[in-house]
Amino acid sequence: AAVNDGPLKGRHVLVTSGPTHEPIDPVRYIANRSSGAQGAAIAQALLGLGAKVTFVTGPADVAAPMGVDLIEVQTAAQMQAAVKAALPADAAVFAAAVADWRMANTVDEKIKKDGNGLPVLEFAENPDILASVCAEKQKPKLVVGFAAETQDVIENATAKRKRKGCDWIVANDVSPSTGIMGGSENDVTLISKDGAEDWPRMGKDQVAQRLAEKIAEALG
Ligand code: C5P
């Protein structure tokens, strides 16, 4: 099939992906173990169904798919600004592992080991990008969030869907024993207002394909 052909032809889908990096000083930052693999696979699958994809990504291990409108960011604040600028969209998938906190004060010079004791890092809360987009006038018709949990996965993810106001939540157990974070497979439950749909463990690309097809179906 030609590029931009398929059930999502003419649709704009926004995808966030990867971790964010929150600077401490010019040479240090806070990060997390997100590889960006699931987000990149989702963008790829959406492209394959003909969507125009805006891909807003933090510093990921995995390359962005060819053919997306690529916006690279470092911090949660930059990701939020990029997401707002990318709207309107028909659908949005928030696969990024956004840092919950940033430094309350970043400093312009490298923090020195000066013998005056240990530095104390003070945190400030980052904006919740997903929740803020769901509360917007420009909320896309279908908004999909992720919930990476290590305990009570379904309960936590169900509560998270309501709290954030998104349509679907893709819930997964990221306990180290699952090998999911940084791995090539995922084991997810899709949560909507109608309940929880448990998908078998499969490749991240297969999760992406199935999710993209469901998005196409929901947009009609
Ligand atoms: O609250 P928690 O981080 O578990 O929520 C995960 C979902 O919310 C993911 O879809 C993530 O991309 C999104 N999120 C966000 N901005 C934040 C925190 C999470 O968009 N600051």
Automatic annotation (TrEMBL):
EC number: 4.1.1.36, 6.3.2.5
Pathway per the UniProt entry: Cofactor biosynthesis; coenzyme A biosynthesis; CoA from (R)-pantothenate: step 2/5; Cofactor biosynthesis; coenzyme A biosynthesis; CoA from (R)-pantothenate: step 3/5
Ranges where the DNA/pantothenate metabolism flavoprotein C-terminal domain occurs: 8-217
This protein's UniProt keywords: Decarboxylase, Flavoprotein, FMN, Ligase, Lyase, Magnesium, Metal-binding, Multifunctional enzyme
GO terms under biological process: coenzyme A biosynthetic process; pantothenate catabolic process
Location of region: Phosphopantothenate--cysteine ligase: 13-220
Catalyzed reactions: (R)-4'-phosphopantothenate + L-cysteine + CTP = N-[(R)-4-phosphopantothenoyl]-L-cysteine + CMP + diphosphate + H(+); N-[(R)-4-phosphopantothenoyl]-L-cysteine + H(+) = (R)-4'-phosphopantetheine + CO2
Cofactor note: Binds 1 FMN per subunit.
Binding of CTP, residues: 100, 110, 127-130, 146, 160, 164
GO molecular function, one term: FMN binding
Co-factor requirement: FMN; Mg(2+)
GO cellular component: phosphopantothenoylcysteine decarboxylase complex
Positions of transmembrane segments: none
Organism superkingdom: Bacteria
Family per similarity comment: In the C-terminal section; belongs to the PPC synthetase family. In the N-terminal section; belongs to the HFCD (homo-oligomeric flavin containing Cys decarboxylase) superfamily.
Annotated function: Catalyzes two steps in the biosynthesis of coenzyme A. In the first step cysteine is conjugated to 4'-phosphopantothenate to form 4-phosphopantothenoylcysteine, in the latter compound is decarboxylated to form 4'-phosphopantotheine.
Protein name: Coenzyme A biosynthesis bifunctional protein CoaBC
Organism the protein comes from: Octadecabacter temperatus
Name of the encoding gene: coaBC
